[in-house]
Amino acid sequence: MLNNKNIVIGIAGSGGEGIISAGEILVNAASSEGLFVFMLKSVGAQIRGGESSIRVRVSDLPVQSQGDRIDVLVVLSWKNFLRFKSELQLEEKVIIVSDTDDPMPDEEIPLTESQREFWYKIPFAKLAEEHAGTHQAKNIVMLGAISEIFSLPREALSKSIKKKFKYKTPEIIESNIKAMVAGVEYVKTQVVKNDPLTFEYQHREPRLVMQGNEAVALGAIYAGLDYYAGYPITPSTEIMEWISRYLPQRDGIAMQMEDELASINAILGASFAGKKAMTATSGPGISLMSEGIGLASMAELPVVIINVQRGGPSTGLPTKTEQADLMQAIWGGHGDSPRVVIAPCDVEDCFDSTVLAFYIAEKYQCPVIVLSDQFIGHRKESINPESMRGSKVGFRKIYHRDTPSAEDLKDYHRFKITETGVSPMSYLGIKGGEYLGSGIEHDEKGSPRGDAANHAKMTEKRWKKFEYIKEEFRFERFYGPKDAKLGIIAWGSTKGAVKEAVLKANAMGMSVGAIIPQIIYPFLIEPFKEFIKNKDRVIIAEMSYAGQFRRYLRGFLRFSQYGVKVVPFAKAGGAPFMVEEILNKIIKEWKEMEARR
Amino acid sequence: MSEALKSTDYKSNLKPIWCPGCGNFGVLSAIYKAFEELQLQPENTAVCSGIGCSSRLPGYINAYTFNGIHGRVLPFATGVKMSHPEATVIAVGGDGDGFSIGAGHIGHAARKNIDITYIVMDNNIYGLTKGQASPTTPLGVRTKTTYYGNMGMTFNPVRMLIAYKASFVARTFAGDPKHVQKMIVEAIQHPGFSFVEILSPCVTFRGKDQFKIIRDKVTYLDGVHDIEDELKAFDIANNEEHFALGVIYKKRRPTYYEIVMDKVTAKAKAASNGIAQIDKLLEQFQP
Q1: Which of A77-81, B77-81, B136-140 has the lowest mean pLDDT?
Q2: What ipTM was predicted for this assembly?
Q3: Rounded CA gap, A525 and A517, in Å?
Q4: Same domain, B116 and B236
Q5: CATH domain A209-396 topology
Q6: Distance between CA B135 and CA B145 in Å, rounded?
Q7: Considering the entire predicted model, what is its pTM?
Q8: Is residue B1 assigned to a domain?
Q9: A222, A431, A438: residue with CB nearest B67
């Protein structure tokens, strides 16, 4: 949808052409002007080389998604464009910018007549060779050229280029600046602009740029992480990479373990020793950790487990997104093992959700699973820096677990039954607080016990905490009018497309509301009851073919009792929802509802 | 100065569930005595385990103790030690817990030289599940799951640990609790990963004559061999006709924690000029 305050640029080419660097420079330039940005990367399966593409959305207004269609398609090599055909859906009036010396293989590229209307051909490689002394700078020539064609922030662009190459020699920096200027000058002198797209924006305070995985890592450190143990797995690895570099700067320890079984047990050991501990993984790793997560429930050890979901089952789609680990997070383990499940819905929320996870884990002495996904984990967004600075309120207050008082220690019962189910927790170093922690059922003192009456009592104790968690938190996200008759329920990264679609639908004259929970489990029922009570229809949108979220919700909400028709909108992952997909669903349901009225 | 602790001070209120005559009783009493000898403070001592007969042992000790899940005692103990480096951290378990389900962890705890003591009470059988073959069950032995005789070659734990670069490897025998005590004391005193294999007979599922059979095969190392000599240590381990008891291999190497402090934390904090504050960490995300 062409709009001068919002532009979606797709760049495709082969691995060595600096596509991702170009995207990062562009994103940084826009963020330093205070613009809202959203960047998705897509790379081939090859470790090095191969094809790559990025999609950058730059906007003067807040953006919720990657944008459905490409306004500007930049092609550094046509031969690799084809591989991304399905990911780079083009606007009908797309504007193409390509290299004069890289002719399009006409018979293969499926472009309509109208898609060929606006087409700028610029000799990227040749200009780079002439002005920077190397064809490798063609990505920078391209940035200069598109900044001139579409009026993207120029000053900021040259600053970002300098920053990108700050560890290189002054000559390299200079030659890149020359490359950018060459692109600008070429357009000024040789190109006649005939497309209608000129970007307009207001300069604001700079915003931070980060990906979801970095926001998780930062949130953990903010919350006071002491010990991290993990095993590399796509798409979560950036969390461990970041933490292993920065946690030691905070006096913490990060260890790479031999597998996920070791990772979960190592963080349980750290928690037993009194430290805040975390691991991060993806679906296959969670499968391996299941037994350890149950041990955390049983031994009442606070730990945070991040699952950056990918497509499954089994190896599945390691570099693609899906929301199909929901049931595993909630119920994935033998026995009745209480754990809390939280889902961030965007990059900024990755920070918040991780801080919240530590708060709940430490306060309620239980494992907390944070269900991120590849879509949030790997994308970059611009963030309001204030959202990540210190705050003393709510869960942003750093929680340290309750330790036993002198009175408690006289006859210490580690698993003492209390009103909230939470018992003061001793740890290594506290004299008089020595106890046996175990995965075997135990009594209040910690001694192994096999009788049914004790098991019933202790099971109840462990689950009782949930009632208090449900009481403490009320945070939900609502979009659109509360009295709307049509509603959408979604979770996690699906929020972006849902929110944008809901805002559009309302602007188009429909009345649609959405609710996106942050704490998924325990289920905070009240806001949902409130939400569905005046609805006629509710769409449940999720990237799970089996409709795990819908099935989960049905366990708590008797939709039919409220006279609400449930409209499943479940699809397999791989590609995140597009705004248009959600909007079309809304329109279809809206029309049906209108027809019945 | 508080009063000296006696071996009985390390006893918890729980009674062992082991069968009468089990080798683990000797090990437990040797542990109490070793703790007394070292005057370990219960609040600064952690004894951890996985699952099995011998993995019940932590419950019988007055300290911070943990009875976790099958095979995972080493990573658990690693997390404890890294979080509380001044504590004495001991991992205990059996041959099934350690060499079968948990075998993947031994090499890594050893090569990282985590400063913990790993005590394996090796009884050549699964006892808690009542008599199935373990990785150290001799070839041809009939058990409940190897009715026609055990088909796999027997693990040689000492040889494996030397190969894994464990910095302390010892073997002892539950029938000689004094020697067990001596080995445990030396193992705890060794800075780095220390491994003690204790031949601890299962009289229920391997037979009452186990004590005698093992006693007839043990020899004591005279203490004159070069304990830093890896090849000599392999020679000792390779002798499967006899069980040589004593410290078989020992070498002081930097522990994982020492390396973290010297090479990681020091560098990291020099880079950040002390403890990095959140505002400082946010700078790298500025465009």
Answers
A1: A77-81
A2: 0.98
A3: 10
A4: yes
A5: Rossmann fold (3.40.50)
A6: 13
A7: 0.96
A8: no
A9: A438
